[in-house]
TrEMBL record:
Heme b 1 binds at residues 56, 188, 206. GO terms for biological process: anaerobic electron transport chain; nitrate assimilation. It holds the Pfam family Nitrate_red_gam. This is nitrate reductase (quinone). The keyword Lipid biosynthesis does not apply. The lineage of its organism: Bacteria, Pseudomonadati, Pseudomonadota, Alphaproteobacteria, Hyphomicrobiales. InterPro entries: Heme-iron_electron_transfer, NarG-like_domain, NarG-like_sf, Nitrate_red_gam. It comes from Ochrobactrum soli. Its EC number is 1.7.5.1.
């Protein structure tokens, strides 16, 4: 079991993050026109709008919260006077609200993709797989809240901070920080890493398409020919 734990939380993170980075770059370089959300936007537009807004806003806050909460050095929180308990309460409340928003949105999107024959016909198997995995991941995150409330002092949260920062600083002992963590957290981490691994091969890459496209696109200028416009305006339509 120790070897499995070390692989899942000490080696697998590097595999998943490497595939995420290199796979996204390779796909954008070789298949830039596949960086889109798909062609089903005109089907069930109202359900798509509500599901998309709730899901994307919720996930945005969740991702930002995880990024700041896990990767900010502990001494920074200490310097700002933010206790572990206060950070834990903020994570539970804010994460809970964002998680509920995201899972409602994901439910609407999953229902639309699975039960609407027209949307299902225009979907690839990976489209359905990834939305289901995201839904399960959100459910695991919400299910971890009762466990977090049992450790409101923030001691358990510090373990995950040390683990995440250990991964990014290439600490070979990073996995040891969460050896005795609850299974719900381990499942949440493993599935999150798996979603990162699958990211470049799904339509999730459209989340990166807007900033990349507008940063790197070449500038252009529209030029009109005045003579041609003037001639066109004086053209007569012959009577039938």
């Amino acid at each position: 079991m120790a070897y499995i734990h070390t692989f899942l939380f000490g080696i697998y993170p590097y595999i998943a993050l490497s595939v995420l980075a290199l796979g996204s770059i390779f796909r954008y370089d070789r298949e830039p026109y596949t960086w889109r959300s798909g062609s089903s936007q005109l089907l069930r537009r109202k359900q798509l709008m509500w599901g998309s807004v709730l899901f994307h806003v919720g996930v945005l806050f969740i991702f930002a919260g995880h990024f700041v909460g896990l990767l900010t050095p502990i001494w920074v929180f200490d310097a700002l006077g933010v206790s572990h308990e206060a950070k834990q309460i903020l994570a539970v409340v804010a994460g809970g609200i964002a998680g509920v928003m995201a899972i409602i949105g994901a439910s609407l999107l999953a229902h639309r993709r699975v039960f609407d024959p027209r949307v299902r016909a225009s979907s690839r198997p990976t489209d359905t797989l990834i939305i289901i995995l995201l839904w399960v991941q959100l459910l695991l995150g919400l299910s971890s809240i009762p466990v977090s409330l049992q450790h409101i002092d923030g001691h358990e949260m510090v373990k995950f901070m040390n683990w995440a920062q250990g991964i990014f600083t290439f600490n070979p002992e990073a996995s040891s920080y969460i050896t005795d963590a609850s299974i719900i957290f381990k499942m949440h981490i493993f599935l999150g890493l798996t979603i990162f691994l699958l990211f470049p091969f799904t339509r999730l890459v459209h989340m990166l398409s807007a900033p990349v496209r507008y940063i790197w696109r070449p500038g252009y200028q529209v030029v009109r020919e005045r003579n041609h416009t003037a001639q066109s305006s004086h053209m007569r339509i012959p009577a039938e």
